[in-house]
């Protein structure tokens, strides 16, 4: 039976609104980042992977991670984002993070590689608990800042209590040691506090205090002091702390404006350590040159713009903070990584999202992007 015209007019738009598509720019940027990342990873690893009798070994592992991430992304994009605001979900995410971060620093449980204990191995699958923890902190910050409202304008009773949880996570990750990831978590937390409406004088006070503590930590141990100073003139310390950055800068110099061509770079031939992870952006510079680097930077800028647009269009404070936190978490890590690789920041072990090898990392990141997609479906609506 046909409905009256008036009924069709009132129900039609509502049904249309419920079927809003995800943000097209976000989807396109995600696809381009994944495709470009796979291409660069192939170039970075096919030579060293020949020793394993399979030059595509790392690429296949990354494809498996992308496959899992795609499933996770589809699922989280269909779960209403307010589901993540539930207290038990937030507490469970933090509890799991704290347990895993504690386990990873226990000798005999955490996997010890190159002077750091950052990985856990379960059923033959290695992963970094810090990758899960950083998004758990984003979820906690979004929920807590929404609950506190204007209370965040107080330093002692607003900001300090909120930062206690990120502070504990920071200290646990610092024990691995992994200063770059720990620091990025505090940066994201600080940005979310700014977005929530904290006073600028409180923000500046915390930044000054944080820089002071960070400088003290970096200067307190000889190896950290050498690493801090090496990025200023890596070629003077090429036999020690400056070797990796020196090889990275050589890669960029060899690439020039347009690069040597896909797979034709030479630094991956056992000159540049970890070309598949922390320093994969150097492979971009050598193979594709300055223009290729600018394209990658532009993709992350587009991701930042798309994510922040979603946050700004969302009328729900929790959704806006969650969208901003996820976006900033991914892009801050990307820009810190690129800053390290080109020598404008001290050398630290921080992977480049969507590019560096790591199946579990890319799966978790894609699941977080799925939440961002769900927020984009309902941005601007309060009745969803």
Topology:
Elements: H1 5-18, H2 24-45, H3 57-78, H4 87-104, E1 111-113, E2 116-122, E3 125-127, H5 129-148, H6 155-174, H7 179-195, H8 200-219, H9 222-230, H10 243-255, H11 280-313, H12 317-341, H13 359-378
Antiparallel strand pairs: 1-2, 2-3
Class derived from helix and strand content: mainly alpha
- Biggest β-sheet strands, sense, barrel: 3 strands, antiparallel
Mean pLDDT: 85
Radius of gyration: 22 Å
The largest sheet has its strands arranged as: 1-2-3
- Element order: H for helix, E for strand: HHHHEEEHHHHHHHHH
Distance between the termini: 28 Å
The total count of strands amounts to: 3
pLDDT < 50 stretches: 1-17
Proportion of beta-strand residues: under 5%
Short synopsis of the structure:
Helix content is 66%, strand content 3%. The protein is mainly α and 384 residues long.
Describe the structure.
This protein has about 375 residues and is mostly helical. The protein contains 13 helices and three strands; from the N terminus they run ααααβββααααααααα. It has a three-stranded antiparallel β-sheet. Helix 6 packs antiparallel against helix 7 (about 180-195) and helix 7 runs antiparallel to helix 12 (about 315-340).
């Amino acid at each position: 039976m046909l409905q009256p015209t008036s009924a069709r007019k009132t129900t039609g738009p509502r049904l249309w609104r419920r079927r809003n598509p995800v943000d097209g720019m976000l989807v396109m940027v995600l696809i381009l980042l994944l495709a470009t990342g796979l291409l660069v990873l192939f170039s970075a690893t096919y030579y060293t992977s020949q020793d394993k009798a399979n030059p595509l070994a790392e690429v296949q592992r990354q494809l498996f991670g992308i496959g899992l991430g795609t499933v996770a992304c589809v699922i989280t994009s269909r779960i209403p984002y307010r589901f993540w605001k539930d207290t038990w979900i937030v507490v469970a995410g933090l509890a799991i993070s704290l347990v895993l971060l504690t386990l990873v620093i226990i000798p005999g449980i955490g996997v010890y590689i190159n002077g750091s204990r950052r990985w856990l191995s379960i059923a033959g699958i290695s992963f970094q608990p810090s990758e899960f923890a950083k998004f758990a902190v984003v979820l906690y910050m979004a929920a807590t800042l929404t609950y506190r409202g204007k209370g965040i304008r107080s330093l002692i009773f607003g900001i300090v209590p909120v930062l206690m949880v990120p502070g504990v996570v920071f200290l646990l990750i610092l024990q691995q040691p992994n200063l770059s990831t720990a620091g990025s978590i505090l940066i994201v937390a600080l940005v979310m506090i700014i977005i929530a409406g904290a006073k600028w004088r409180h923000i500046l006070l915390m930044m000054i205090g944080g820089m002071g503590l960070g400088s003290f930590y970096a200067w307190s141990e000889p190896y950290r002091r050498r690493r801090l100073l090496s990025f200023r003139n890596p070629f003077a310390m090429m036999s020690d702390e400056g070797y990796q950055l020196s090889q990275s800068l050589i890669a960029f110099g060899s690439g020039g404006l347009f690069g040597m061509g896909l797979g034709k770079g030479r630094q991956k031939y056992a000159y540049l350590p970890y070309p598949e992870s922390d320093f994969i952006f150097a492979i971009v510079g050598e193979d594709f040159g300055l223009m290729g680097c600018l394209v990658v930077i532009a993709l992350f800028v587009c991701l930042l713009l798309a994510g922040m647009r979603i946050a700004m269009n969302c009328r729900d404070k929790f959704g806006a903070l969650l969208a901003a936190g996820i976006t900033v978490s991914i892009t801050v890590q990307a820009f810190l990584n690129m800053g390290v690789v080109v020598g404008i920041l001290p050398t630290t072990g921080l992977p480049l999202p969507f590019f560096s090898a790591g199946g579990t990392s890319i799966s978790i990141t894609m699941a977080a992007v799925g939440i961002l997609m769900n927020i984009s479906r309902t941005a601007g609506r309060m009745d969803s």
